[in-house]
Amino acid sequence: MANKTVAEALIKAQKFEENDKYEQAYECYKYAHELDKSDTDVLQQLATAAQMLQYNNDAITYWNMFMSLKPEDPISYTQLLDLYFHDNKYEYYMTRAKLKTIEDRLPQAVDDYKKAINNTTDEKLIIEARYLLAKSYEIINKPMQAIDEYLRILDYNHNENVYLSLANLYYAQDKSAALNVLLSAYEHYPQSNNVKEFLCKIYLATGDYKKAEEFAVNSYDKIK
User: Fold this and answer.
1) Are the C-beta atoms of 43 and 66 separated by less than 8 Å?
2) pLDDT tens figures, 82-136
3) How far is Cα 159 from Cα 179, in angstroms, rounded to an integer?
């Protein structure tokens, strides 16, 4: 198949499929994908071929590649749901939650993130699900539930984005709580401009201009 173009490889694959030679067609799709890994049409055909041949691990890999390139297209989510259903309930519920998110059904997505958490003991996977759960709570305007999830994450993992999200939620209601979160963040991320800028903002808002100057990152903040 040397020196064939993507279009030629696809034509060859389709001819193999017409003659029920699905393994050969699959190899053609893989070849076409190697020629252009950003071609989502090829990826879709490759993933579908892998699924038909029951190469489920390959199909999962290719559908996830497709999802990363076209995150708003529901087809990869629906196919992955079938692939995950029996063997990986964590990924099943995570994928279903993400599908509901792109379909603007966030309250239902929240329930699926919770189910994903209950279907794994892997700390890293739990943190990933809790983070998306917290973000979902923020979007549907449930700040207290979002705060609870961020605090649960910080019990196990120091994460700059979690600190910033938590401080932002506290900021409107309790600046002292936001300040405590950011000072904790600063202990772990003393070089972070985002943390320092937020600290400067809080100190300016509370009238502690000396402290604000200490954490000012840019000249505009220093002038203020």
Assistant:
1) yes
2) 999 999 999 999 999 999 999 999 999 999 999 999 999 999 999 999 999 999 9
3) 16
Closest CA to 152 of 144, 83, 120: 144
Confidence label for 216 from pLDDT (cuts 50, 70 and 90): confident
Could you identify the residue written with the tokens 């699926």? Answer: 112
Q: What's the one-letter identity of residue 73?
A: D
Q: Answer left, alpha or beta for residue 54, where phi above 0 means left and psi between -120 and 50 means alpha.
A: left
What six digits make up the tokens of 197?
Answer: 């800028």
**Residue that the structure tokens 């990933």 belong to:** 128
Nearest to 52 by CA among 85, 17, 78: 17
The C-alpha atoms of residue 198 and residue 200 are separated, in whole angstroms, by 5
Residue partners of 209: CB distance under 8 A and separation at least 6: 203
How far apart CA 153 and CA 148 sit, in angstroms, is 9
pTM (2 decimals)? 0.88
Q: Which sign, positive or negative, has the C-alpha torsion 170, 172, 175, 179?
A: positive
Cβ-contact 74, 99 below 8 angstroms: yes
Cα-based distances in Å from 79 to 47, 104, 169: 9, 19, 36
